[in-house]
Amino acid sequence: MSNIAISLLDIEDDASQCLVAEDYQTRVGKWCAGCGDFGALNAIKRLLAKEQLQPEKMAFVSGIGCSSRFPHYVNAYGFHGIHGRALTIATGLKLTRPELDVFVVMGDGDCTSIGAGHWIHATRYNPNLTVLLLDNNIYGLTKNQTSPTTPQGYASNTTPRGSFLPALNPLQATLGVSNASFVAQTADWVPAHLYATLQAAYEHPGFSFVRILQRCPKFTSDVFAEQIKDPDLTELLVHENGVDAPGLDKLFKARREHDPKDIDAARALAQRTDKLRLGMFFRNDSFPVYDEIRAVPPVTVEDKIARLNKEFDRYAV
Ligand code: SF4
Fold first, then answer.
1. Which domains occur in the chain, in start order?
2. Which end of the chain is flanked by fewer CB atoms within 10 Å, N or C?
3. b/e per residue, 244-271, with b = 16+ CB within 10 A?
4. What is the pTM of this model?
5. Ligand 1 centroid vs 134 CA: distance in angstroms?
6. Does the Cβ of 219 fall within 6 Å of ligand 1?
């Protein structure tokens, strides 16, 4: 179990104190200079401070990858899990400790490859988790291997002549799952939008899936370069029930009114490739939430012992 790390709290248990963003960071992130993971961490710290979440009442769960170092840097309970299994760990945690706010951080290799089965079923189960997919289109931690979201033709160590297949689209995949209740896309280089999206995701009761387009200057420095340089290549999805933030209208002239309740329109927009689209694709707060459906009534110690004894008695010889 050497790859499991528990980060404990180092601030006093005093619910009355006002926490600022820096109180939620344990140490400087060990990511390359310019890595988009820094932006995601900053947005999370802002969100935690805004909500005044107490570190002992939340947990960050991750898998394996550059972004999965997240739990080490957030002042909360943390579980740096195993590759592709962050969602299973987080679902179990939420079922047994429903009072905790549980955040999940995964990379594209972690979530959409080895963890793909868990991703699909966690979407369908709809547990109350805030899920960040940090998508840099590559396996970065293991130094440049093609992931499912790597663009077709992009060269890496595993496909030096270019990736053979069209990239998997995580928005399309998630929107195709029954009971998907929240699907949004944002980008690490648009901090106001990133923060507003995480805020909406946190408020959503259910499985909030946020794909964060993430810069990886080390291995995929050019995949988002054009969009970063020219904001006209990005279209914001806007709606009174969607995501917006002050100042974005000045930066992004292309804005599309999209009702996030419209699943057909969400699916159609997710598959288009003419522009990069940021915003809330779909949200429905009324879908059944797994940890509420499966809520287990409290059990006393005596009950637990009686049940164990009953089970053991079945094997008595
Ligand atoms: Fe970030 Fe890429 Fe460096 Fe990993 S390899 S820390 S994703 S810039």
1. 21-313 (3.40.50.970)
2. C
3. bbeebeeebeeeeebebeeeebbbebbe
4. 0.90
5. 11
6. yes
